[in-house]
Specification:
alpha+beta, DNA ligase i, domain 1, D-amino Acid Aminotransferase, Chain A, domain 1, 4 domains, 22 strands, binds adenosine-5'-triphosphate, DNA repair, ligase, cell division
Length: about 625
């Protein structure tokens, strides 16, 4: 059994390394000495979590609470120490160092159990119960362990290892190189639980690992990575891309949502459920868990966004409707959109997004009714449909939803042979208030997480200069001047992802499109993630350096007049040497993870599209 101190020594080492490759190698070496259960646990802990992204398992414990607790119990001037050391982990390390008693380190699993207990403490008096657990645990920890323990519970463990890097690490640890990358990405694509994938890899030997990974299949309850959609420059390009009949569906503008349903009685499925599902079930959780306390239902329904966030509680009407459908298990891919049931028309995107909230759900349900328009099905009655052709999946979906009317509806699909037919359907969709159409190749499987030309979006913006909006992550902000200085934030620095260098490349400063309430909300959220220096994998040219750096966490959608070459950046080629002309914020805090932002390759494609036309 590995000790927590070993893991903390590893964290310390990872922090000191600059290169991603070195970090991956270091972690791979460490994991080789762990058993498969430890690998599963470490896969979550390395991201500062106790469970995969789609399981609600937040610590909900602030640095402020910890500082208060420490000043009461140590008699130290904790606030000043915090200011000096620059971070909560170092603060606790300094205090613990003075208590010079060496303690025997706890096992990784023991710490994991304690972390779960903190997560599971909620309701009245939660803070004082959490405080008691934290103090009890801290008393058993060495200085280095306390440093990483408090960073974890305060949500500040920032090791900078992405999901992609972790998959590389699994490959390195098993076969010594990155040759398992593709098969690992496919496995994670159909079963987006990084710990489960890690466990499967470490249960296998060199000979059986490929087969074991290929056998990983869709399981209701565990999200599948959402398939992404490619963009084109013009209607003519569609006919160049597709030589035969295509499927055309309306493009809904709302919240991407996977609807999972499974039977609690399905013993076969339960056998396959992941280790930690049963672990979670055995815990006295006060929040909903996957086998929730709603004993009156014999099925479970869960809703996940493309960002792997569990949004089940936000849409009770969709959950109820899914329960009523006669099929006992399925995974549907859909877009949730605000819907006026009296007039039978769509509400705006902004109205739909008001439903993305944790409180006052019942009253918002009345103000903003919604419908989930389903355009794909990935699992039905015990069988995965992920590898079936698109046309066959859509037929199966019609079988499930053709007569339904209510909170879950079937998205229309037509078959088209010519660009003229596509254009006609596009015009009809736009006149109904939709954003455009999605054109899909009839053949080919679902391809989780992938973006290629088998699925193409044709948006109203196709006739505009930019072809499509750009998703960026905020890596810093500027304090602003004049009226904006009241908010302490005047503009933000947006970055795209560079796959070649594995960096976030800052390409422009965005200062327009931000109303006062957005500025306030942004400042509040971003200041919780502010940093003294940029994280290792952020690149920026000197003249764009922000006043405050922030951890890359919040994803925004940005529109602009055009993509331009950035002269001051030509040597460094940060962001492909490109920038945006007149960028403006369209949406702050998107339903996307940093792994989903626009890439340098995509922005170069978009730039070239317009150069050609
Ligand atoms: P992207 O998905 O390209 O990263 P984005 O989130 O801004 O960017 P859009 O440009 O709006 O997305 O287009 C793709 C999205 O459209 C899909 O992710 C999905 O949420 C939504 N969508 C709406 N209707 C459909 C449909 N019929 N088929 C597939 N996706 C659809």
């Amino acid at each position: 059994m590995r000790k927590y101190i070993d893991l903390c020594n590893l964290f310390e080492k990872l922090e000191s390394l600059q290169s991603r490759n070195e970090m991956s190698l270091e972690l791979a070496t460490f994991l080789k000495e762990c058993n498969s259960e430890e690998v599963q646990i470490i896969s979550y802990m390395i991201q500062g979590r106790v469970a995969p992204m789609f399981v609600k398992s937040e610590f909900n414990y602030s640095e402020k609470s910890l500082l208060k607790l420490l000043s009461q119990h140590t008699g130290e001037d904790v606030q000043s120490l915090r200011k000096e050391s620059g971070d909560i982990g170092n603060t606790v390390y300094e205090i613990w160092k003075k208590q010079d008693s060496t303690k025997e380190s706890l096992g990784i699993k023991e710490i994991y159990e304690i972390l779960w207990e903190i997560v599971n403490t909620s309701g009245i008096g939660a803070i004082s119960r959490k405080n008691a657990l934290i103090l009890q645990c801290l008393q058993k920890l060495n200085p280095l362990e306390s440093k990483y323990f408090v960073r974890t519970i305060c949500g500040q463990l920032r090791l900078g290892l992405s999901m992609r890097s972790l998959l590389d690490v699994f490959s390195l640890a098993t076969v010594g190189d990155k040759s398992l990358k593709v098969i690992l990405e496919q496995a994670y694509g159909v079963c987006a639980d990084i710990g489960y994938i890690g466990k499967k890899v470490f249960e296998s030997d060199r000979e059986s690992v490929v087969e074991n990974l290929s056998n990983i299949s869709a399981i209701p309850g565990t999200p599948i990575l959402s398939r992404l959609v490619q963009r084109v420059a013009s209607f003519d390009e569609i006919s160049e891309r597709f030589k035969s009949t295509v499927l055309v569906q309306p493009k809904f503008d709302g919240l991407r949502c996977q609807i999972h349903k499974w039977s609690k009685k399905d013993t076969e499925l339960k056998k396959n459920l992941l280790l930690w599902f049963s672990y979670l079930d055995s815990k006295p959780r006060q929040t909903n868990n996957l086998f929730s306390s709603e004993k009156s239902f014999d099925c479970e329904v869960r809703l996940y966004t493309r960002n792997l966030e569990d949004v089940t509680e936000m849409f009770p009407e969709i959950v109820d409707y899914a329960r009523e459908l006669k099929q006992s298990s399925f995974i549907l891919d859909s877009e949730i959109v605000g819907w006026n049931y009296k007039k039978n028309n769509f509400l705006s995107y902004q109205e739909t997004m008001q439903r993305r909230r944790k409180y006052s759900i019942e009253s918002k349900m009345v103000d903003v009714p919604v419908k989930a328009f389903c355009f794909d099905i990935l699992y039905l009655s015990g069988d995965s449909l992920v590898n079936k052709d698109t046309i066959d999946r859509v037929k199966a979906l019609e079988g499930v939803l053709v007569h339904t009317q209510g909170s879950i509806s079937l998205a229309e699909s037509i078959e088209a042979e010519t660009t003229k037919q596509i254009k006609k359907y596009f015009d009809k969709s736009v006149s109904m208030g939709l954003e455009g159409v999605i054109v899909k190749q009839l053949s080919g499987g679902y391809r989780p997480g992938l973006r290629n030309y088998e699925w193409i979006k044709v948006k109203k913006s196709i006739e505009k200069d930019l072809v499509d909006t750009i998703d960026m992550v905020i890596v810093g902000y500027y304090k602003g001047s004049g009226r904006r200085s009241d908010f302490g934030l005047g503009a933000i620095l947006g970055a795209i992802y560079n796959g070649e260098t594995d960096t976030y490349d800052a390409i422009c400063k965005i200062g327009t499109g931000m109303k006062d309430e957005i500025l306030k909300d942004m400042k509040e959220k971003l200041s919780q993630y502010s940093l003294k220096t940029p994280v290792k994998n952020v690149r920026v040219v000197d003249n764009l350096k922000p006043d405050i750096w922030v951890e890359p966490k919040y994803v925004i959608t940005v529109d602009a007049d055009e993509i331009t070459k950035n002269i001051s950046n030509m040597d460094l080629l940060i962001g492909g040497g490109l920038s945006l002309r007149f960028p403006r914020l369209i949406e702050f805090d998107r339903d996307k993870g940093v792994e989903d932002i626009t890439t340098v390759t995509e922005i170069l494609d978009m730039y070239n599209m317009r150069k050609k036309s």
